[in-house]
Amino acid sequence: MNYIKSPKTLFLLLLLLVALASIPFVYSYTTQAFASGSAQCGKETIYGGNIVSIERPVVKLHNPKEGQSDNVSMVVTVDNSTHIYRQQGNSCREVMFSDLKVGQSLKVFSRYDMIIAIYPVPITASAIVIVG
User: Fold this and answer.
1) Are residues 71 and 85 in the same domain?
2) Phi and psi of 7, rounded to 5°?
3) Do 21 and 80 fall into the same domain?
4) Same domain, yes or no, for 29 and 47?
5) Cα–Cα distance between 76 and 108 in angstroms, integer?
6) Which of 39, 66, 69, 129 could tie 107 with a disulfide, CB 3.0–4.6 Å?
7) d(Cα 87, Cα 23) in Å, to the nearest integer?
8) Model-level pTM?
9) Mean pLDDT of the chain
């Protein structure tokens, strides 16, 4: 037990206790920052478009840059871990799946890296941002 009385050991033990005690605070802070959606709403993505149809858990989108207004260009799968945000100006807040409506414009962030080889593009969404 004499080695615990050493100032170096006591300092390291105290430092370790402070670090362990701060973990819940750091986790809480970072979780709240992500949940606010401000990180997602500010990001750009190549995936997006206007909602053509909604049949839980699938949202079909049309990219207006592709011409015809009724053409489905993207099939987005939403699951329990998908975050959905509504962007209004500079603010961004998390919303529910039920807030999605036909005609809304979305930005979609894919959970997986993709090579677009299938049309319409199938995406499992990690986050969706309702724009406008």
Assistant:
1) yes
2) -60, -35
3) no
4) no
5) 8
6) 129
7) 31
8) 0.68
9) 82
